[in-house]
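Input structure tokens:
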């Protein structure tokens, strides 16, 4: 058994100062039980906890680290940047360079704004949609997560589902929740009904085209195409929240897989390469509504921060189609291995993956929406998660989260991981 003594002590200490001992709830291991690991360092595909245990890491900071930990080029670029100062509150060429790079990869962002988190990106996109359309209502899908701003915290999946009744969002004024209409994910009839009842009042529809905050659930092509058609007809904006799926589901984002052009897109996670960056952008005519060009207010002391821009630029510069081919092939292989291991042990499982995003549900399937996810065996998941950890594999500590692949995960790492899954299934069977 691995020794977690130092992490346990660190957690007792942090719990005196931070609610739940953490700065973001899903880190707390609440729904698998026990204490979270405190991390000392990361190196490529591995992380090391403060007790000196080493793990193959598939959390990757919840998505951003597509090049793994402490990529040598990223470290070098950041070291050079920090020596020039950390923030100026005045424009730098880096911001334009990153914007150009993003646009080259995701062309629907004709103009964009840099912010410091995915939450800020979606919050700002929603305000822009409301300002631009002069309408108040927003549509979101049950189990999609768009950060923790007021309007978007209703029925928000993952972290929220783990800790609360998903419908509840204490602290969010009822009036705001009233303007957020929620529909089941992949429910074409449901969204049609909402538009026939409220079409004229809807500012925008925000959707994760590939949902990643209730495990991985791809939107169906018909569903996403229906959203495009309905919003266009009603004069509402279609917002693709690609904070997770951007540079993850595919190099050019989920929008390239479905051949759908949203009006606005939000990015985050990979776009900062492990530094705090979010982006919202889209059609020029709409983005022109942002201050100081237009009336919709947006600002940020650290927006476009030079270190954050450098993290993004250095990361995106290393990405290309062939790297995605390699990472996707390794993800495919891992999924086949996990499915095979579960089948061999007679454990019902559904595995989903798109590009470098992957998850598995202890559930017979099919898994197409949040209700389906809820049928998963979370008790089994908790046991299994801990068994995997003992075999040196660090995955998301919740049945409702996505795991990721990095460019640093080797063929040998995949084989090690599949062997660990087999061993973990054995372990859980033995303790039954
Ligand atoms: C992570 C995430 C967010 C929130 O981003 P933060 O940087 O955590 O604020 C928003 N939308 C989606 C789809 C996400 O996965």
């Amino acid at each position: 058994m691995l020794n977690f003594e130092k992490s346990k002590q660190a957690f007792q200490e942090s719990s005196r100062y931070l609610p739940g001992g953490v700065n973001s709830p899903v880190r707390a291991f609440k729904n698998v039980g026990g204490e979270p690991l405190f991390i000392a360092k990361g190196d490529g595909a591995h992380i090391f906890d403060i007790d000196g245990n080493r793990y193959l890491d598939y959390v990757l900071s919840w998505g951003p680290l597509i090049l793994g930990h402490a990529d040598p080029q990223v470290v070098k670029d950041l070291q050079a940047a920090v020596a020039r100062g950390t923030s100026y509150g005045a424009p730098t060429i880096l911001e334009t360079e990153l914007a150009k790079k993003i646009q080259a990869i995701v062309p629907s962002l004709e103009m964009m704004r840099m912010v410091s988190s995915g939450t800020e990106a979606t919050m700002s996109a929603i305000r822009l949609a409301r300002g631009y359309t002069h309408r108040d209502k927003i549509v979101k899908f049950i189990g999609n997560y768009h950060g923790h701003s007021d309007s978007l915290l209703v029925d928000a999946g993952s972290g929220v589902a783990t800790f609360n009744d998903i419908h509840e969002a204490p602290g969010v004024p009822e009036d705001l929740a009233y303007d957020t209409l929620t529909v089941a994910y992949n429910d074409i009839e449901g969204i049609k009904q909402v538009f026939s009842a409220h079409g004229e009042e809807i500012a925008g529809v925000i959707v994760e085209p590939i949902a990643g905050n209730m495990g991985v659930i791809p939107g169906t092509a018909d569903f996403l195409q229906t959203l495009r058609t309905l919003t266009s007809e009603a004069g509402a904006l279609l917002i693709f929240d690609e904070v997770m799926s951007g540079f993850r589901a595919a190099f050019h984002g989920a929008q390239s897989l479905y051949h759908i052009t949203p009006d606005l897109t939000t990015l985050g996670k990979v776009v900062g390469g492990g530094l705090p960056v979010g982006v919202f952008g889209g059609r020029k005519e709409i983005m022109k509504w942002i201050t100081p060009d237009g009336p919709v207010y947006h600002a940020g002391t650290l927006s476009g921060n030079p270190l954050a821009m450098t993290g993004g630029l250095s990361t995106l510069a290393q990405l290309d189609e062939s790297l995605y081919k390699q990472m996707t092939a390794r993800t495919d292989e891992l999924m086949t291995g996990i499915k095979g291991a579960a089948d061999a042990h007679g454990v019902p499982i559904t595995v989903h993956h798109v590009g470098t995003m992957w998850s598995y549900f202890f559930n017979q399937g099919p898994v197409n929406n949040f209700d389906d996810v809820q049928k998963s065996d979370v008790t089994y998941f908790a046991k299994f998660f801990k068994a995997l950890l003992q075999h040196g594999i660090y995955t998301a500590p919740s049945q409702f989260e996505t795991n990721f692949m990095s460019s640093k995960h080797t063929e040998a790492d995949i084989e090690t991981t599949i062997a660990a899954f087999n061993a973990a299934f054995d372990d859980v069977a033995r303790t039954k």
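Residues 366 and 372 are 7 Å apart (CA to CA). Residues 117-119, 122, 145-147, 208, 212-213, 241, 243-244, 268, 278 surround pyridoxal-5'-phosphate (CB under 6 Å).
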